[in-house]
Amino acid sequence: MNLRRLSIVMLLLAALLLGVSAISAQDAEAAVLRYPIDADPEHLNPFTATTIAIARVLNNVYEGLLALDPETSEIVPWLAERWEISEDNLTYTFYLRQGVLFHDVPWVEYEGGDREFKADDWVYAAERSANADETISQHPEWLESVVGADAFTAGEAESISGLTIVDDYTIQLTLTAPNRLFLTTLGVPAIPREAIDQLGEELGNQPVGTGPFRFVEWLRDDTLTLEANPDYWQEGLPLLDGVAFINVPDSNTALLQYRAGELDLLLGFPVGQRAATIEEFQDQYSEIPGLNVRYFGFRMNTGFFAENPLVRQAFAHAFNRELVWNELMEGARFPATLGYLPPAMPASTPATIYNFDLERAAELLAEAGFPGGEGLPAIDLYIFASAQDELSFPVLQADLASIGVEINIVVEDNSTYFDSIGQDEVLFFLSGWSAGLLDPSDVFDFLFYEGRDDTGYDNPEVNALLEAARQEFDEEARTAIYQQVHDLLTADSPWIVSAYSKVGWLQQPWVDGFAPTPGGTHNARLFNVTIDTAAQPG
Known about the structure:
CATH architecture of the largest domain: Roll
Shape: globular
Strand content: 15-25%
Number of strands: 19
Number of helices: 16
Distance between the termini: 42 Å
CATH class of the largest domain: Alpha Beta
Number of domains: 3
Low-confidence stretches: 1-22
Structural class: alpha+beta
Mean pLDDT: 93
Helix content: 25-40%
């Protein structure tokens, strides 16, 4: 993942000269949602976006042909007003909504002044997403099922043969094989081809889409501002004038600001104050079970852990998850006492479960040739800065020390973290994944198919099973396949699973319509949020 930095001075100058005005989060006249974030997004490029920090912003700027219904997780029409699937489940025809306009922004000049989203814009973005260069795109899953995508990615073809523009408002895609997941993974965003051509790398700093909000400015480590899109295709939306993502890296500070009415939401709680905060604001607190899995990943394609499976298993047994999450972290998450999937998903209980068992952990270390930790190198555990107060780290460190393992905790800045843990020399790291729907594919396909996760885990047997599951339309048979996958994964132990999420938040009494999904607060549709500015203090 590449970090691209924006010249704020140049952007603000362009905004002033060309008449784009930023909404102030302090403007009492405007209904601006003051949304706290604990770290800036790494960038704003949808083609290389892989983190929640980025998605939180881009979900409001970009849109795709389809969307997930937040209540049912069913695929619904979006920029495609309808679609047809051939009887053999191989050909998909999408009919685009007419009259959808791209954002009117000063940093993009549209050919002929035409801002309408059309088929050639989508296809141009789709072809960019199929680029093999990871600095350009990190989403091979979007089009990998389409005929000719592999040849195009390999540079053996000038276009994707299975991707056809029928007319300005009709796109046809042909698949290599039936794939029940195709619609859920077709994440190509609507981006004007002029933006891709004119902005280049600056697309990561100046996003341009069709969404309910358009980008205004980004003051690094301070505030990222969006304003309502006046030309949004859904009449009457958004209901807000804008959104100010306010960088508040310290959870104690965020709580103080929320208490003073300076923030409209509180999405995290200071360590040791969660229960007290919920009690203080019990009428403003909401919670739903989540679909995020937090884990410690082992490097699986090179290095010490790749060569020592018994050590990985020993580490997985040597972690008291229940102490961390039920007691020390006051129930902030559910301890991961099962497997790699959130418990609500099918096939969520694997054959191998790594319960907290220091005696068994010590036995495994001895079997691996490291009795009492003798001969083990000191191991660095990488964590991101905004999580450094989490008490899972000292607990894991102490548990492993009790069986002779020395762990050094390395705190990495959020902005560079996911670049760093992708390097071969990083062997042990904190990470997590938020699924968007209750389907094992939304974890397994994104993290374990052909080494996609930062662990680099790549098991041919797992790959073949995941491919089979995509073509299996019978739910019972498909669940059985995912159960096999889960059993293989936990036997290989590329992770120490730490916790499953709870989606909990506070919202001020003057805020309405903020409705996160089990996938996380970042999935809330902000165009439905309203603010009663008359009820705000001051």
